[in-house]
Amino acid sequence: MTILTADAIGTLLDALRTEGIRVEAPGAGTAPYAHDAGTRASAPGSGPAVAFPASAAEVQAVVRAAASARIAIIPRGAGSGLSGGAVATPDQLVVSTERLTRIVEIAPADEIAVVEPGVINADLNAALAPYGLFYAPDPASYAISSIGGNIATNAGGLRCAKYGVTRESILALDVVLPDGELVSIGHRSLKGVTGYDLVSLLTGSEGTLGIVVSATVRTRPLPVARRTLSAFFPSTAEGAVALGAITASRVRPAVVEFLDEPSLDAIDRHSGTSLRARGAALVLVELDGFGIDEQTAELSAALHAAGGTVTAEPEEDAAVLWELRRSGRGLREGEWFVGGDVAVPKSRLPEVYAAFAEIERARGVRIAAVAHAGDGNLHPVVTRAIPAGGDPAHPDAALHDALEDIARLALSLGGTVTGEHGVGRVKRQLAALELPPRVVALHRALKDALDPHALLNPGTAF
Predict the structure, then answer these.
(1) Which residues pair with 74 in a beta bridge?
(2) What is the mean pLDDT of the chain?
(3) What letter would DSSP give residue 284?
(4) 303: which of 181, 196, 229, 266 lies 20 to 30 Å off by Cα?
(5) Coil/strand/helix, residue 9
């Protein structure tokens, strides 16, 4: 791709201003748009040019103008991504969807909603609640992440155990292609098998194939009841093995989360709680739907038989536990850290946790991991004390080596190097471990077919 001058960017911005599109020139004020949440530590002091379209037509105009000038575009949602999927350089144009925030339609009779990509996940659920509906995907960042960003990474979250990842809730998309053309793919109906499944292709494509400007999403009835069970175990190993008792039962929880001993220690240290006094590992379950008492009785018995201390948590206590799971962990001062996002068949989770000790010894690091245990998705955090003279912004290679060890372990167990955060720029090396050359070639062929000039999010994913 041609290296562009500041004059080329300036000319593009002037052209967009004449069309009434809000833009900002590169500078300190746009620095937050140079990175996402996963790459903030290495962000520059000056940011890229940014366009803020307020309609699908404006997105088209921006993409057409950028394509004509051969200026690369970095699509951006709320910036909450953790894999470097929205990283921009000064010779690129960020297209932010933060002004595309309309909930266009809620159709209760069809159990769907039509939304623009800048709608925040939590705001959509607030709008659906009066209709007795909810949108199932709920990443831990649900309060700040946008639907468009969730689609870009095929985000998961806590409720995946029962309701699936974002892809299972996306029926149709309006997408601006790299040449500026607007296309509609998918259906309002729950079924539809005409042609290739382009909705699934675009969902999880990390802004490399098109920019979503509207999504028709599936909604579901709010459960008649929800209940939280906690089960504490004497050790991480015993808690991980006990997860199999849930699968063996007839109960299918909405959420199954597992917190190992180091994660409980981190929560207590950061949040001033005393979870470790209740046990060394925690299985946290949310049940929903009809027959909540029968579900509670069966699953409580199964977890108790597996060695757990089981409690049906009062509503207020349950809310505290879920918030601690989402945001209660903290890091010690003076530590490097890197985070991961692997997934394995859920029956293999005990093997992953058992392998951490050897990786810690070999790499000189500490590992703590919470897991969406209902679908086998782990989020390990690897830490190490920063030595005198160490740069806090650049973790020692041993931390990344440990993450690669965990990724290789996940692959050996039939899993993946990224369960829900995407590849972005951070995990391209890990993705290369998983995808054989022929499969990579297929990905590149699709990219070349839709984006022959590599203008959309170049350098991301592959």
Answers:
(1) 94
(2) 95
(3) E
(4) 266
(5) helix
Please report the pLDDT score of residue 360 as a whole number: 98
What are 183's two structure tokens? 């296309």
Assessment of whether the complete model's pTM goes beyond 0.90: yes
Contacts of 283 (CB under 8 A, 6+ apart): 230, 231, 233, 239, 242, 243, 246, 256, 257, 258, 303, 308, 373
Per-residue model confidence as pLDDT tens digits over 128-173? 999 999 999 999 889 999 999 999 999 998 999 999 999 999 999 9
Q: Find out whether 410 and 356 touch, Cβ atoms under 8 Å.
A: no
317's tokens:
């206590």
Q: What pLDDT, on the 0 to 100 scale, is given for residue 297?
A: 98
Enumerate the domain spans of the chain: 6-99, 103-221, 226-327, 335-421
> What is the torsion angle, in degrees rounded to the nearest 10, for the CA atoms of residue 184, residue 188, residue 189 and residue 195?
0
Q: Are 240 and 258 in contact (CB under 8 A)?
A: yes
The beta-strand segments (E) located in 61-158 are 73-76, 93-96, 103-107, 112-115, 133-134
Mean pLDDT of 438-446: 96
Residue 2 has pLDDT above 50, yes or no: no
How many residues comprise the chain? 462
**What CATH number does the domain located at 226-327 have?**
3.30.70.2190
Return the amino acid letter for 461.
A
Q: Does domain 335-421 have CATH number 2.10.109.10?
A: no
Which numeric CATH code is attached to 103-221?
A: 3.30.465.10
What CATH class is the domain 6-99?
alpha beta
One fold for both 226-327 and 335-421?
Answer: yes
